Write the structure tokens for this entry.
Amino acid sequence: MDNKQLTDKKPAKSKKGRLIALVALLVLVLGAAAWVLPYFTTRAPHEAMLYMKLGTPLDEVGDSLRAKLGDEYTDRVMSLLRLTKADLSVRHGAFKIEEGESAWALMRHLRSGPTTPVRVTFNNVRTKGELARRLTTRLMIDSTLMRQALDNDTLCRRYGLDTTTIVTMFLPDTYMFEWDISPEDLLDAMHTYHKKFWTDVNLNKARALGLTPEQVSTLASIVDEETAKADEKPKVARLYLNRLERGIKLQADPTVKFALGDFAIRRITHAMLEVDSPYNTYRVTGLPPGPIRLPEKATLEAVLNAPRHDYIFMCAREDFSGYHNFATTNAEHEANARRYHQALNERGIK
């Protein structure tokens, strides 16, 4: 065999070897892609929220994910978390999982992504116990701890309030809080929101009425209990302001219900009016020591901007429309009251 024949065979073998290597590499790449690709293509079937307390074990995170998003997606996420040796015990808060979020993206989110504030809404709240329960329905805080914070004298004084007036900081609305917020941080947040309502303009309006913000809130709470009619609230507010200015007892039926702790009462009796309580405005002169419910912002505005009139009496209308008849004299009021009581009797309401 001459030298030329040997030279021709070497390139052939070299080409074959390169081809084999290229095929092997391609097989490796395709194999790796087949293994990796599902972590990018397996996506959350729907939106969900994952809640993690500090120190939550990885297996518990997996159980929560599985219950919300199924096995396939959870298996992918958990494999990645274990592969990357993720320590989720130091993570805490609420994490929103978007519909279509890949397993890879969620792994990164849980390891180092931001937490998601949760929406908290409360209204129609009458007592501190009810407020504590409403606040903690969507939050990690235990309702007992929240109630203890509301009853903490030292904590309440931080905001210039006491354990009776602390609820005036809570204006019914929708708020965004971190899921694992502490009771103290929640109070700080509510104080910030409270100050946004009590601008210098509103503070000056309260001073012009001779009231503190807490007293405005207390009066507004009575107005909210007296009428559900938004167009009537300013009129009712001025009626009570007139009575305060003249030193007349407010004689507001809702304060009796609050004193008795029974908001289902439909008809106030004379015996009920004798209940010994600082909230019973048939016995005490002036405002109660605090609100009998959390008043709406619109009702606070109704008090601050109440139009002038001379009415000092009101009585529910006998047509049960939810509106009231107003009067300037006792004689007019008694006539209104007789018609209303007759309507109650006719309907058998006791």
Observations:
- The radius of gyration is 34 Å.
